[in-house]
Model the fold of this input.
Amino acid sequence: MESKKENKNRRSIRLANWEYSWSGYYFVTICAAKGELLFGNIEDEKMILNDVGRIVGDVWNEIPKHFSGVELDVFVVMPNHVHGVIAIVDGRDGVENSRDVVGARHASPLRPCGVAPRSLGSIVGSFKSAVTKRVNENRGTPGVPVWQRNYYEHVIRDEGDLERIREYIATNPLRWALDEEKPENRVS
Done:
C-alpha cells in the first residue's frame, strides 16, 4: 500500500504545460477498483455487459448533458476498465470546435491547484462519482469503491493519433485474452 509520503511525492503523468480545460480530444482509461472484473465479461471476443457495465455505459453517455461544450467519441467498457475519447469543444481557451484543435500547442503560465471546472479531471471525477453512486444504490453497498484512484489520460495530438486510438478502443475486446489488465495476465 502506498504511504502518504510516497503519495505526496508521486510524479504527475500529466502533460507539462497543458491546461486540461482547453479544447481538444482526450483519451482516458479508467480502471475498476483492485482490477476487479466488475463490468461483465468477454465472450467470443465481444464484451457482454452485466448490470454494472450497463450503468457505466449509461452514465458515460450522459456526460454531455452535464457538461456543455463536451462531446463523446469512441468508448468501450471492458471487464475491469473503460476506454473513451472525450472532446472538449468549447474550452477555456475560447476555441469553439475541438476538430480545429487536435494537438497540444498551448503553454500554461501557472500550475493549477485542484480540479478546474469543466476540465477533463472534473468530467472524469463526475463520471466516476455518478457510476459509484448508482452501482452502490443498486447493490445496497454504500461507500464501496468501484474505481481505482485517478485515471490515465493522453492528450490527442493529431488526426493520426486520434485514428490510432479509435482503432485501439474499437478492437480492445478482441485483444482481451492478452490484455495486461486481465487478472491472470498480470505480472506480480
